Automatic annotation (TrEMBL), chains A, B:
Lineage: Bacteria, Pseudomonadati, Bacteroidota, Flavobacteriia, Flavobacteriales
Alphabetized SUPFAM superfamilies for the sequence: Pectin lyase-like (SSF51126)
Pfam families documented for this protein: Chondroitinas_B (PF14592)
Domain of life from the UniProt record: Bacteria
Name of this chain's protein: DUF4957 domain-containing protein
Length: 780, 780
């Protein structure tokens, strides 16, 4: 026991247990004190008095509104530790954060939930410019849904400064507001050459943000892109990290990405700025369907992409398994440097749609309309692609997609089993052979049978690629592809117990939804409130006169009894919604007849504090006499909004998703789908889906309008366009009938992007126009 | 003896002497064979057969037109050596070069002179992309005046590729053609992390080039500015390295500049691109007069400027002892990144005019006329200036010149003896104290008497500054300034025997000029040819009818006997000059009367192959009836052209220096001075001095027109300007009289640059106009 420490303790601090002897081999044996605290004042005092080797223990329970400034000076052998009494039983809630300042400080076992940081970060490795953390660690913790109330209020959940800090064995998921989940900062000489460790974490689902600044990890920024970082990102699981197109945005030099698993993540590992990164031994696992799962996107100089395994990825262009971008000659600092001196070697691709794309992002065709400093015309040079193995169960037309010529790339000793389909072999650099597939697990299938005469190409410094994907030495019996030999054990990459904490799991037991029958209006809200998420509210036949908005704050379905449409008549005040879509309110409406009083709304998000996403699916429903069918406000976001087999009539406004007006690339839904619907006499904003601000790498917004009929709509539409989708990148208008709509244009398609129309019948409704380039505000 | 090697030798190779035993401590003793060769075929064969430990010896004498490809594979302990029989007695002449390919190859004792490389380099550490040198060395060699014939034919004299190559103990001087003397290339992964050594060399005079691309050392380029270089430049003497504004242009990362001496060099050590350089323990020595001697100019991030000594420097702005530039926000790759995270610590400045300038290169005032991507408005941030000592025998008005605010700079614990003149102390970061000066040598004077209470400021990582200028440990008894203590030995920094070869000296015994009297025209050329450089040709009184151009190819003076002007009448053909100024032809004409036939020229350079500079001074002379007084052709250059107390009359054209028309920033003379002259009836091109192409860091071209009279001139001047000096940066027109010159403008001054006029009398001659910004072609 350390009696000196004891002497200073206040009344409300208990000395307890844990006398630890340091590991064999140390010169001195030290005694760790355990100092239990149960409120913030006691914690602050304990921190103030802490000495190397002290262990401050937070009592189990809820710690609300705690701003923890963990400052101190531990030593390598005797860190100061701040831990939960029981890992996972200490929750940090409300307006709370944790900041480190000093050295050799460790935090363990906390659960951040039900709250948000009042600061710019939840966990920060700096208290102020004079108190920066070094050799500090947060481990075995969870940060879950700790979102600021407003989507535009930017923060980070873990913000690195200093050197040699660590985020390990944590589970982090659910960020919806602006800002990368994790950022490493390099401003200031204190934070370069940082050698931070981001290891063994489980990055759980981060939903689509609907605009930029939704990375899971960002290492630096363009202004520090010259800085040597040496951050290690290893052995992490990235599960459904869908925030934006970049799961990891590496913007500094000498970072390493090793043995991570990217599982169903709608984005890529991108070397956005900075150079000389190592991307080795990672798994990129798709489902063979979703085209948003990415791989590795390369910009800049000197990266080595080795021993990676790509499976079942259907992404193309920016989201290709390997997307090598064109640069801008003499690029501005925040744009695209040319790719040079890159090595892509010993990777394996199984059943990927376009394994390799070069010249990605080329916009030479727009040279006439864009300034010279925007033209990505500089192709990759001094780049080697060697010793890779590709296996396609269905042969591809091209192994290399050349958006611009890959004439600065040397292909050596790559092989592909393309099932006999002919392709460009780049002077023998890509050879067709016949391979077999050995199944190791559901997602790990190894192409086998590489002919013995195909020896690995030995490029400059290739001797530094010492092992294969599984860590097996390449020194003897080397072979091409990510995996040497065929006799390998299942790496169990999706065994979640290998990542994150030792106490938290995001696996949920599936449960069957329960139906709750309602017979009169007054009980609807109560039934919703009492239901579990996923349950069904069933309206018995009849008319329900609802006076007050129904609050939806969980996943819920509301439907009529089979076959008979219940009618819901909403008499609520002007501009109030029948269904108020709150954070996490994911509403499915089926087979109802909804009627308003011409001043109120059918559906609306909150006007503010939409701290989490909502959702909306409407099927087989009649909607009439509303001011707005759907009104979504600024900073509200739904991943999907779907109207299906639904009739909308006699409304002043239709589906309004144009709240994001500050030209920062944000929008209100990722997917708006309108299929087999009828719109009649909707006077304005029939469909209004808007994205402002231009950044070519943010590729979202998806509108499908199909098999629907629009009649007598748009009479009060000021801009004389029926379907408004300004700035939406992916638009498909197909199989619709437009009749007697007094507008000039049914739609104005953005020709330079993925906007298409087909099989529409238009009479007395203006026309569909294609505008090649939009005038948009640049976001950078 | 190595009999295996012997067995392979051809007839014309002699085996001789030199059995060497390797140094004590090696596991095996090895025998070095000496293989003497006396022609290129034998050399090539010897190279082909060479094995580790071989020593190939070049026989003394002249080796003409030899293209040496030195390829082979030595080992660390047994390199393959190619050496002169006697160091300095083997000269490489004519069209020759030396290329290295392989590893552990060394070259010693050669003298490159009287020739030029037919390739892009004289010495190159690469034969082709598959034969790059590693661990190769050139040492104890001289490269002297090895210029291509045309100034625009670019080459390098030592061109580095690969890794771990060395240029040591060489003397290199006299480059006049385009291209840095030394370049380190980083294209390709084979050449990054190169750790080249450029050490112990004597870089002798490199004359002003007259335009850009005249660096003595260039490390990389903007396109490889992200590359880690780690080149060491140490213990070199840079003597009169005046090629351009950058003596050393560092364009990559992690380079080190240690213990070099910059002596009367008209340029700076510039961190032009790239980051994280170390500039430690260097000497920058001026003469207290010349404002072109520079110091250290900082651009980009993370440089450490420590322990340097600055003496008697009068440079300002770009050429300040410390010039910290403004950057361009989000700069294009080839422009100016912002200065961030720079440390300037423990330096000493003695008698420098403006020790520290910040915001150098700011052009915010031109924001209206220049594109945004050209505006240097980003001030230095996160920059620390600490522990420096400044001593001024004459107090300065400002210690820090703020071209733009230094508000991102932290000043800590700097002191200055400013002789009581008040200055901005930056919140105590620069304190006035009273110091003494201890004289160690002519150029090394140490400020002493730092008060004991001024402890060094301890910034982040300052503990890495372990020694002082002289290598003394800072661990105990540390103090501010470059030098700890006062009891130091003279470092003899200008003892030339410490640098360069062990056999060559550039010190010349001064000799008195000899006068050679001439009495008739036919003997003038013969006397010139027979004279030594510096001699004087004296024309006896009388008239000399010269029919053929007089060839001037050395420094020579031609003058009349005192008091009486000899008349030289030139009847040469049209467009031929009386004095043909050849390479190295530095002509002084004094007290003559020169008369042409209205079709020929008084003075002209060669039309081509001006492989070295000329010079011209004309005093007390009458010049009349020429087509051109002086006609200087493209790719000709004179450091100075001076007309003094000379009358020029009845000529079709005057002084024509406008040959450089390809807008690459070149021009024909550095200084054109016209003082106390009379121009009468010169019809066109009275003065025509031109520079095309804009790059703000090339700051040359100097025109002085003073105390002169211009009458009846410019009648045939198409552009209606009397004194043409388009693009010349420094212009001073003062004390002249302009009378009855039928032009619109006497001069059009460039307002944004250092163009001035004063005390001129203008009558019936148009006016002097100031144009703030010229339209010029950008060179980058």
């Amino acid at each position: 026991m350390n009696y000196t420490a004891n002497f200073k303790l206040k009344n409300n601090i208990l000395i307890y247990l844990s006398v630890l002897f340091l590991a064999f081999g140390c010169k001195e044996s030290a005694v760790k004190s355990g100092i239990k605290v149960d409120n913030i004042e006691a914690l602050n005092n304990a921190i103030k008095d802490a000495k190397p080797g002290d262990n401050i223990v937070l009592a189990n329970g809820v710690w609300k509104d705690v701003e923890i400034k963990f400052r101190g000076h531990g030593t390598k052998d005797n860190p100061i530790v701040l831990s939960a009494e029981t890992a996972g039983k200490v929750s940090i809630e409300g307006k709370s954060y944790l900041k480190f300042g000093g050295q050799h400080l460790e935090v363990e076992g906390l659960h951040f939930k039900n709250g948000y940081s009042p600061s710019r970060a939840v966990v920060e490795f700096k208290i102020n410019d004079d108190e920066i953390a070094n050799n500090c660690k947060i481990t075995n913790c969870v940060i879950e849904d700790f979102n600021k109330l407003k989507r535009d209020d930017s923060d980070l959940w873990v913000n690195f400064w200093g050197r040699h800090n660590e985020l390990s064995n944590c589970y982090i998921a659910g960020k919806t507001n602006r800002g990368p989940t994790i950022r490493v900062n390099l401003e200031g000489i204190e934070s370069i050459n940082n050698y931070h460790q981001i290891v063994n974490n489980h990055f759980g689902p981060r939903p689509v943000k609907g605009g930029p600044s939704g990375e899971t990890i960002q290492l630096g920024n363009s202004f520090t892109s010259m800085a040597p970082s040496y951050t290690m990102v290893a052995n992490n699981l990235f599960e459904e990290c869908n925030g934006e197109v970049e799961v990891i945005s590496s913007k500094t030099n000498f970072n390493e990405f090793r043995n991570n698993v990217f599982y169903k993540s709608e984005g890529s590992l991108v070397t956005r700025h900075g150079n000389y990164c190592t991307i080795d031994g990672n798994y990129f696992i798709g489902d063979g369907v979703n085209e948003n799962y990415g791989g590795i996107r390369i910009i800049n100089t000197g990266h080595w992409v080795t021993n990676n395994y790509f499976f079942n990825l259907k992404g193309t262009s920016f989201r290709s398994p390997l997307a090598v971008m064109n640069g801008i000659p003499k690029s501005p600092q925040n744009r695209y440097n040319q790719v040079t001196d890159v090595v892509v070697a010993y990777n394996t691709y199984v059943n990927c749609s376009t394994p390799w794309q070069f010249g990605v992002g080329t916009n030479i065709a727009q040279a006439d309309v864009l300034p010279k400093s925007e033209i990505r015309s500089a192709r990759a040079v001094r780049t080697t692609v060697a010793n890779n193995v590709i296996y396609n169960e269905t042969g591809l037309e091209a192994i290399v997609i050349e958006n611009d010529k890959a004439d600065g790339v040397t292909f050596k000793n790559n092989i592909v089993d393309n099932k006999g389909v002919k392709f460009n072999g780049f002077d023998g650099g890509i050879k067709e052979v016949s391979l077999s597939l050995k199944i190791i697990s559901e997602n790990i299938k190894i192409p086998t049978g590489v002919p013995n005469d195909i020896e690995p190409y030995v490029g400059f410094d290739f001797g530094n690629i010492k092992t294969d994907l599984f860590g097996k030495s390449r020194e003897n019996n080397n072979s091409i592809g990510a995996i040497i030999g065929v006799d390998v054990a299942n790496p169990n990459i999706l065994d979640k117990s290998k990542y994150g904490t030792d106490w938290f799991s995001n696996e949920v037991e599936p449960s069957d939804p329960v139906s709750h029958v309602v017979t009169n209006a007054s009980e609807i809200q109560a039934k919703i409130d009492a239901a579990n998420k996923g349950d069904i509210i069933v309206l018995s036949p009849g008319v329900y006169n609802v006076e007050k908005s129904l609050v939806i704050n969980k996943a819920i379905t509301i439907q009529s009894k089979k076959g008979e449409k219940a009618q819901v008549v909403f008499n609520g005040t002007a501009n109030s919604p029948l269904f108020s879509l709150n954070p996490k309110g994911k509403l499915t409406v089926n087979n109802l007849d909804l009627k308003g009083n011409n001043t109120n709304y059918a559906f609306a998000s909150l006007k503010e504090n939409m701290s989490n996403h909502f959702g909306l699916t409407v099927s087989n429903t009649e909607i009439s006499n509303f001011n707005y069918v759907l009104k979504v406000f600024k900073e509200s976001f739904s991943e999907r909004i779907t109207f299906n087999n639904t009739n909308i009539s006699d409304c002043l406004n239709g589906i309004e998703l144009s709240g994001e007006i500050n030209a920062k690339g944000d929008y209100n839904t990722e997917y708006l789908t309108i299929d087999s619907c009828k719109f009649n006499n909707v006077k304005a904003n029939v469909v209004d889906y808007y994205r402002g601000g231009y950044d070519e790498s943010t590729i979202g917004g998806n509108l499908i309008v199909s098999n629907s009929t629009f009649t007598n709509c748009g009479v009060k539409e000021d801009n004389r366009i029926l379907l408004n989708h300004h700035g939406i990148v992916n638009v498909n208008i197909t199989g619709n009938t437009f009749k007697n709509n007094p507008v000039a244009f049914v739609s104005v398609l953005w020709g330079a992007k993925n906007n298409a129309q087909s099989n529409n019948t238009i009479s007395n409704s203006g026309q569909i126009k294609v505008q090649e380039n939009l005038e948009m505000k640049l976001m950078y």
